[in-house]
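Incident log, structure service

09:12 report received: a user says their structure output differs between two submissions of the same chain.
09:20 pulled the input from the user's history:
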Amino acid sequence: MLSKQLAVLSSVHRRQLLVALAQSNPQHDQTSASGASETTSDEHDQAIAMQHVHLPVLADHGFIDWEQETQTVTKGPQFDEIEPLLTAVGEHQEVLSDGGVPD
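09:34 re-ran on a clean worker, output below:
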């Protein structure tokens, strides 16, 4: 169980989404790949990764429920399982972002 949770939290994009959900449920996916012409190539790549990698991984583990048509993300049935680890990571973010543990 812990290995699964750590693997999910290994991505900064997934951590950010889960933290946002912990603070405000639901979230609307703002990284939709159908975006404006003003987006950079990196933002476009991130949007594609969110749609095709990160959101499906979180949904498959039950940490989120993802309504693709409305791009709405809510806490999933297993969110309570990962929330304590997410809180612990958040409390130590300064140490982790200063080169303690790589992303």
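09:41 both user submissions now match this output. Likely a transient worker issue. Closing.
09:42 reviewer note: The chain has five helices and three strands. Residues 49 and 84 are 26 Å apart (CA to CA).
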